[in-house]
Amino acid sequence: MEEQVQTPAGNFDTSFCLDMAFHVFLKEAEKGSNFVFSPFSFHCMLSLIAVGSKGSTLDQLLSFLRLKSIDELKSLASQAVTSVLSPSNRGEDQTRSPIVSFVNGAWVDLSFRLKPSFQEVVKGTYCATAQEVDFVNEANQVLNEINSWVETETRGLIKNLLPQKCFGNDTALVLANALYFKGAWDRKFDASKTKYNDFHLLSGQIVQVPFMTSKRHQRHLYVSFDGYKVLKIPYQNDQDTREFSMYFFLPDATNGLHSLIQVFKSSPELYTMQLKLQEQDLPEFWIPRFKFSFKFEVSHTMKELGLELPFKAVGEFSEMVDSAKSLFLSNVFHASCIEVNEEGTEAAASTAPRFIRKSRRLNPPSFVADHPFMFLIREEKSGMIFFIGAVINPLFVS
Q: Which residues belong to any copy of the Serpin domain (predicted)?
């Protein structure tokens, strides 16, 4: 059977988020670290920040989000909620369908007040909760409250998103979101066949890791290109309008991850997934189990890629709060984690910005992921990429 993955509908363009992911990928690969990042979580947070901005800052944010107006931005946010994150699709009673939960929150200092127009978007379009807090006198308490909220909403997967003592007396507003995903494979791996085997690291070292495989003669959605292979594994779907899948991108060369990343950096159109995947029997089919998390402060990377105006004290976030004091973006914290095993995938992500006030091919085909590779989790109909990452060492747990 051949499957043609069509270009997704809509214009939920996460190109900037993917550029940022690859920017960090290349640095982490040199360190031998695994990496995972949620373009969806980050894109939604940038969108929310854009709603509260104006002038040149708004123009720059819309440009990086590949959008023309706030109205288009709000429309896409609503589309995400209704088509992918709607309550009817979030219930855990649909045991055969992926569980997807996404929530937003806003914590504003007592000396400020969210503008009614911004609060309406926060609560309506983004389904967010908003509350007043005292950043001046109760900074540690508020920090613990936000971290606890993120941990709860990600089912305990993201802990301590915000580092201790990151709030100063100048903190005015903190936004945060929490994304949780859990999906079972449409056709599970055969746990009785999982065994340890060699995984080749970029350093040349070989480690023993548990590899999963499927039942004999089970066919897989697969395609091979010059220099790398692609494997797609769908998740179970129980009368659900969504179609989630996980993709694995395996370079032919043991040390080919860097080259593969460069291919995707130079050809962003690959994310439209115009791939002719064919169901093929893969006599040699092995994927390692892995579980890891990655956390980083994103502002430096954003600036390196040209998104600078939100971090300058230009007073263009006046659409967020009623105050004579100007706000500007200070820090952006992001954390993601993922576990892939015989049953399926569990993953989570959170993004929290802080605002402060101005003061080769084989025959027969095979897919043996015994060296560093890339992956992504995507909802096919909308084209939304929920997670993207690279496995450098399956044994590494951060």
A: 22-394
Alpha helices in 124-187 (DSSP H): 139-153
The predicted structure's pLDDT at residue 363: 60
Per-residue pLDDT reduced to its tens digit, 115-162: 888 888 888 888 888 889 999 899 999 999 999 999 999 999 999 999
SS (H, E, C) 60-90: HHHHHCCCCCHHHHHHHHHHHHHHCCCHHHC
105: exposed, middle or buried (Cβ count in 10 Å: 0-12, 13-18, 19+): buried
What are the start-end ranges of the H helices in 270-385? Answer: 299-304
Going by C-alpha positions, the residue among 386, 278, 347 that lies closest to residue 44 is 386
Q: Which whole-number Å values give the CA distances from 249 to 24, 60, 169, 243, in the listed order?
A: 18, 32, 46, 19
Q: Which amino acid is at 21?
A: A
- Ordered by where they begin, the domains of the chain are 36-183+291-357 (3.30.497.10), 184-290+362-391 (2.30.39.10)
What are the two backbone dihedrals, phi and then psi, of residue 290, each rounded to the nearest 5 degrees? -155, 155
Q: Which residue has tokens 């004091």? A: 325
Asked if residue 30 lies in contact with residue 56, where contact means CB atoms within 8 angstroms, the answer is: no
Element (H or E) spanning 197, and its range?
A: strand 195-200
User: At CA 111, angle to CA 105 and CA 112, rounded to 5?
Assistant: 50
